Amino acid sequence: MLAVRKLRPATGISIEEVPPPSAPPPGDVTIQVHAAGICGSDLHVYQWGTSYDFMRSRLPLTLGHEFSGKVVATGEGVTNIAIGDRVAVMPAGSCLRCSNCLGGDVHLCTDKKTLGLTRDGAFSRFVNAPALDCIKLAPGTDLTLAALLEPLSVGDNAAAVGGVTSGDTVVVLGPGTIGQAIVRAARWRGATRVIAVGMNDKPRLETALALGATDVIDLASESSLKDGIRALTGSTTADVVIEATGHETSISDGLSILRKGGVLVSAGIHARPASFDLTSFVRNQQQLRAAHGSRRKSWEIIARHIATDPASVRAMVSMEMSLRDAEEGFRRCFERNVSKVVLRPE
Ligand SMILES: [Zn+2]
Ligand SMILES: [Zn+2]
Description:
Layout: E1 2-6, E2 14-17, E3 28-37, H1 40-47, E4 61-62, E5 66-74, E6 86-89, E7 92-93, H2 99-102, E8 113-114, E9 126-130, E10 134-136, H3 143-146, H4 149-161, E11 169-173, H5 177-188, E12 193-198, H6 202-210, E13 215-218, H7 225-233, E14 238-243, H8 249-256, E15 258-266, H9 278-283, E16 287-290, H10 296-308, E17 317-322, H11 326-334, E18 340-344
Parallel strand pairs: 11-12, 11-14, 12-13, 14-15, 15-16, 17-18
Antiparallel strand pairs: 1-2, 1-4, 3-5, 3-9, 3-18, 5-6, 6-10, 7-8
The structure holds zinc ion (2 copies).
Residues 39, 41, 65-66, 150 line the site of one zinc ion.
């Protein structure tokens, strides 16, 4: 079968024939992949840098961790999933043995194995995955949209960490795929006003609007974030600010538009340390929290939304293409004006 692989710790990917996976070992299932999205982390892996050095000892392997498909075989002891089930898969499998797992915080597992990063992933016709990490989809769920479950669940987790609730005004800094997912999730959680913010980001802000943002701000045509928010809302404060930019200034910018007692969630991956005014942070009793990855609860919430409200996420899929054309798919993603490129095995 054709697979998109990372062969060695250097720039690039390889599209090549590999044998299909072996019969699923105990606890695993074999999934026939329907669709698999290219993620921002796949782009980092393509370019190769020190932040993905943990993959070095696992190479070569098949990439792809945002996917959906149909179960075609089950290993010994699998009872929650049956052949024929349509599923999406939580790619980061918890060990169920470390102290965090045993304490019930499986999302804080210290020994995760991630499909497409530390074991063979879904950029191929078949993939083996742990049955316990499968999310069974409701009948009729659009399998291409189900490949969006991973980023949308990351978005829902960030909104949950921020405590987004009915009637909130939420500002989302960064209109990339995760920012877009946060916009959609915040609306589903009842936020009345969701403002997406970018910088020279027309196409991605348009997608954010299609996904439910009530307003967008392009900082290229504003003197500051604060002025942009004031012009839009008549005030300068939001209930929750969620940052998905990875720019160190997004923390101080975000705090400058956060109400007293409001919550700023940092969900970006930051290359540099941030600095901000701790005195006003303390006096305003603001909260700074971190969100990373997702929990099963978010997957189940989002799976239900995709089944009942598919139209509200369709704009996130910018293009579908054959796995054979993965190089072209990656190239389009690097251009920064597409949202999700979805690969389809033949
Ligand atoms: Zn991803
Ligand atoms: Zn663990």
